[in-house]
């Protein structure tokens, strides 16, 4: 088949949605992690709710759907899943009355975070085949989820704060990956390396 008659790659006409997905993930993770780290008081946590729904949730979910159109199973699974995470976080923390759980509420939240940690761990295995920048995000995110999960199970503010600080580093790594995607596309050359594998 000649070059003129080859079909274009699926979704080749679409911009790379990873920049949006990583940006939505990074900003929302950063704000919540600053709260978890205790840098700002817990009572300001509601500022995360709208952000979690709109940018971490809907925008990231949209990025995942565009990744499906581009034929990227990893990107689609990651962005749709973490978009759903942020929407579920918005619903769980802003619209769910957990008072009936009493002292067991921490066990429920711990289980929620542990399950996301397990999901992130197996996505980390797949991330080995993406880029160094994305792999770093997934390694850090896995650590963040497990620290926060065990912080809830053990009602340990120390583990939760540590998870918050690791979450901040995770957000910075995701911002870097998003920035590199935007900058490299805009300048039509490698401005910031992503260490493709």
UniProtKB/TrEMBL annotation:
Q: Pfam families given for it?
A: Gpr1_Fun34_YaaH
**Residues annotated as transmembrane:** 20-40, 46-66, 73-91, 111-128, 135-153, 165-187
Could you name the Gene Ontology cellular component terms for this entry?
plasma membrane
The protein's superkingdom reads Bacteria
List where in the cell it is found. Membrane
Q: Primary place of residence?
A: membrane
* Molecular-function GO term, any one: acetate transmembrane transporter activity
The membrane topology of this protein is: Multi-pass membrane protein
Write out the entry's keywords from A to Z: Membrane, Transmembrane, Transmembrane helix
Q: Which family does it belong to?
A: Belongs to the acetate uptake transporter (AceTr) (TC 2.A.96) family.
Q: Which NCBIfam families match?
A: AceTr_1
The name of this protein is Uncharacterized protein
């Amino acid at each position: 088949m000649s070059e003129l008659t080859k079909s274009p790659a699926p979704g080749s006409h679409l911009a790379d949605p990873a920049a949006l997905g990583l940006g939505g993930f990074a900003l929302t993770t950063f704000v919540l992690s600053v709260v978890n780290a205790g840098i700002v008081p817990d009572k300001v946590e509601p500022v995360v709710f709208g952000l979690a729904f709109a940018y971490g949730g809907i925008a990231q979910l949209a990025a995942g759907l565009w990744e499906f159109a581009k034929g990227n199973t990893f990107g689609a699974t990651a962005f749709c899943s973490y978009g759903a995470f942020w929407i579920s976080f918005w619903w769980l923390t802003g619209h769910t009355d957990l008072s009936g759980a009493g002292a067991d509420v921490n066990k429920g939240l711990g289980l929620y975070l542990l399950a996301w940690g397990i999901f992130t761990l197996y996505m980390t295995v797949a991330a080995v085949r993406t880029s160094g920048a994305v792999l770093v995000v997934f390694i850090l995110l896995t650590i963040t989820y497990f620290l926060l999960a065990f912080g809830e199970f053990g009602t340990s503010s120390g583990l939760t704060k540590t998870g918050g600080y690791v979450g901040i580093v995770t957000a910075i790594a995701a911002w870097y990956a998003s920035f590199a995607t935007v900058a490299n596309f805009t300048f039509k050359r490698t401005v910031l390396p992503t260490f493709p594998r």
